[in-house]
């Protein structure tokens, strides 16, 4: 249980408070192809699609793609536009997961720090993400 002393010397009781991740937002130049990629890769459904935003519904999470004017993809592992986020995906088979992601438009990153345990790929908008078999089961 967490108790915080409030500004009026009141006690706030947060032991029943539930906080969960509801959505991940990714900037891009064109939300359509990015939402198509993530929906296909993760088995989600596109529940909203406009010129400026597309929303993919996954089991317990929304993945939102937002159009940004003059979007510049992040450079990984370093460069003038650093990565702002990184998504790790738990997979059973690295090779097969990589083939699937590439067939949907991902690109294998040139730098692979630990290719026996995880692979770094770039989604169609250039966001880095990893495929990994190294998550606890």
What would you say this structure looks like, in words?
The structure is a single chain. The chain has helices at residues 31-42, 94-103; strands at residues 3-5, 11-13, 23-28, 45-49, 53-57, 62-67, 87-90, 107-108, 118-122, 128-132. The protein is an alpha+beta fold and 137 residues long. It has one domain (20-70, 77-132): 2,3-Dihydroxybiphenyl 1,2-Dioxygenase, domain 1 (Roll). A four-stranded mixed β-sheet has the order 3-6-5-4, covered by helices on one side. It has a four-stranded mixed β-sheet with strand order 7-10-9-8, covered by helices on one side. The protein has a two-stranded antiparallel sheet with strand order 1-2. It is globular and about 40 Å long. It starts with a strand and ends in a 5-residue tail after the last strand. The mean pLDDT is 88.
Fill in the keyword field for this structure.
137 residues; alpha+beta; 2,3-Dihydroxybiphenyl 1,2-Dioxygenase, domain 1; four-stranded mixed β-sheet; 2 helices; 32% strand
Provide the spatial order of strands within the biggest beta sheet: 3-6-5-4
Q: What is the CATH topology? A: 2,3-Dihydroxybiphenyl 1,2-Dioxygenase, domain 1
Give the domain tally: 1
Mean pLDDT: 88
Tell me the major beta sheet: 4 strands, mixed
How much of the polypeptide forms β-strand, as a percent range? 25-35%
- Give the C-alpha Rg: 18 Å
Label the overall shape: globular
β-strand number: 10
Along the chain, the helix and strand elements come as EEEHEEEEHEEE
């Amino acid at each position: 249980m967490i108790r915080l002393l409030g500004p009026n010397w009141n006690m706030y009781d947060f032991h029943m408070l539930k906080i969960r991740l509801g959505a991940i937002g990714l900037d891009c130049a064109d939300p359509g192809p990015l939402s198509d990629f993530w929906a296909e890769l993760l088995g989600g459904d596109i529940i909203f699609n406009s010129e400026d935003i597309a929303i993919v519904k996954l089991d317990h999470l929304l993945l939102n793609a937002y159009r940004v004017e003059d979007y510049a993809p992040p450079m990984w592992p370093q460069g003038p536009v650093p990565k702002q986020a990184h998504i790790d995906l738990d997979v059973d088979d690295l090779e097969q997961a990589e083939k699937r992601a590439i067939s949907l438009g991902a690109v294998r990153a040139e730098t692979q720090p630990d290719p026996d345990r995880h692979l770094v790929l770039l989604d169609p908008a250039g966001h880095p993400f990893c495929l990994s078999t190294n998550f606890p089961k």
